[in-house]
Amino acid sequence: MIVDALLPGDLPRCAELEAQLFAGDSPWPLAGFVSELAAEHNHYFALRTAPGQPIDGYAGIAVLGPAGAPECEVHTIAVAPEYRGRGGGRALLAALLEVADAVAAPVFLEVRTDNTVAIALYQSAGFSVAGLRPNYYRPSGADAYTMVRAAQPTSRQEDRP
């Protein structure tokens, strides 16, 4: 499995996967993916079995705030059911964290409180639970944890007095 840039031609498959994976919680429509991919502050990645193949997963992160104090927010990570358990989610998360680490930003995300697999993945990458958002997901009413990973200093920052 490889991670590369999410392209406009991948977006119909994103919307298809989104409808399958998040049917009970207002999945993003195709127009939502088009808007997200076009926003300059967003970075989206695709998971593929081989270069040029249709996507098997996707992930996105936003870099927000001023240049001197950026923050990152994970918008989504999704992997097709038939490719789960093969390291694709971890590979997508690593790509997102590279974006955050390049600007030495903390990373925030929301995750369903009952998604133990995702919570374990995030904890293994240095995230911790920072709060609870009751009824965060709609229309299901599922709760979400807000998780955060502290900014990872770059080598340039470590060399400063």
UniProtKB/TrEMBL annotation:
One of its GO terms (molecular function) is N-acetyltransferase activity. SUPFAM superfamilies: Acyl-CoA N-acyltransferases (Nat). The keyword Transferase applies. It comes from the Bacteria. Keywords: Acyltransferase, Cytoplasm, Transferase. Residues 1-152 form the N-acetyltransferase domain. InterPro entries: AcTrfase_RimI/Ard1, Acyl_CoA_acyltransferase, GNAT_dom, YpeA/RimI_acetyltransf. Gene3D superfamilies: 3.40.630.30. Belongs to the acetyltransferase family. RimI subfamily. This is Putative ribosomal-protein-alanine acetyltransferase. The lineage of its organism: Bacteria, Bacillati, Actinomycetota, Actinomycetes, Mycobacteriales.
